[in-house]
Amino acid sequence: MLHRPDRTTVDLSEYPDLVVIYLGQRVNSLKGLKTLVSFRAKISKSVDAQPDGLLLHENVLYSVIPPHSGMRQYWRDFDSLERWARSLPHKAWWQEFLRDSGGTGFWHEAYFRGGQVESVYMDMPAFGLSKFAPVRPARGTLFSARRRLGLREGSELPPGIPEEELY
To answer: What is the tally of structural domains in the chain?
Structure first.
């Protein structure tokens, strides 16, 4: 007897500004193992606090050798995601990572229901979008997610570290 698959889909009409973001951290040196493990614990605790706008968090394993894990998150809208990213505890983690990557590389790719896509890669080999699209320095108009998306500058929250302090 044939079994016909039960096809379903989702109704996203209640989520017009949905953002799906994939994030990853890859071990680049032995020191990076400790960094990766400690970061996973911090993220788990943060997710347990149920940040406003986070609809779903899922852990993802990209590779075992080299260790490269991450997450997929669904956010109600970009403003919720940005507010969380620019507040504690995330802001402190980001500042710490930008001062010392702890032997890891980091990346994210964000996909918006409206069709926009933005990404950033730090100390990473070509991965995801950067495997086929031209790579540019994440500076100036490409420094923040908000700028990469071409959104209003006036509503941008202060960055974790100003661009001038990094370069």
So the answer is: 1
